[in-house]
Write a structure and sequence with these properties.
CATH superfamily: dinb family like domain
CATH topology: Four Helix Bundle (Hemerythrin (Met), subunit A)
CATH architecture: Up-down Bundle
Largest sheet: 2 strands, antiparallel
Radius of gyration: 15 Å
Distance between the termini: 13 Å
Number of helices: 5
Structural class: mainly alpha
Strand content: under 5%
CATH class: Mainly Alpha
Length: 156
């Protein structure tokens, strides 16, 4: 199953994002499409180790409960709160949605290169603890499906 999730992230996710009109309103939440894509780029930077977190969002005694959830097949709920994000979405960084997608594509490719160089690498996620390649792929896939649903894209 992880091979399918890897293939999805490498080959299907970016083309699906490119099909969403940039003015599409989210079905929930406050982020625009471009803000969501830039948010997802930051998630990929965390998974690759480019963005480093040393602390955890939740108390250590709750970490296993959150890990169990994220490594399950249960989807993220709509409007799942992210304590690391401000109440109002951050202003966009890129000039356009297309440029945000290009940035995300570069971050996804970097993520895979990092783990190709060292498949034993572990990166720290501020919500779910230290994750290996397979765990990061699972999380990124789950996160990608969540945000695609947010913008009306259903993936089978």
């Amino acid at each position: 199953m992880n091979a399918q999730k890897t293939a999805f992230l490498k080959h299907r996710f970016i083309p699906l994002l490119k099909q969403i009109p940039s003015d599409t309103k989210p079905q929930w939440g406050k982020m625009t499409l471009q803000q969501m894509i830039e948010h997802f780029s930051e998630s990929v930077r965390i998974a690759s180790g480019k963005t480093v977190h040393t602390d955890f969002v939740f108390p250590a005694d709750q970490l296993q409960k959150y890990r169990d959830f994220v490594l399950s097949e249960k989807p993220f709920r709509e409007n799942t709160a992210n304590p690391l994000m401000p109440e109002a979405p951050a202003p966009v960084i890129n000039v356009s949605t297309e440029e945000a997608i290009t940035e995300l594509d570069k971050e996804v490719n970097f993520f895979f290169r990092v783990f190709e160089k060292n498949n034993l690498q572990v990166t720290r996620n501020p919500f779910y603890g230290d994750l290996n390649f397979e765990q990061n792929v699972h999380l990124l896939h789950k996160h990608a499906l969540h945000h695609l649903r947010q913008f009306g894209v259903t993936v089978n």
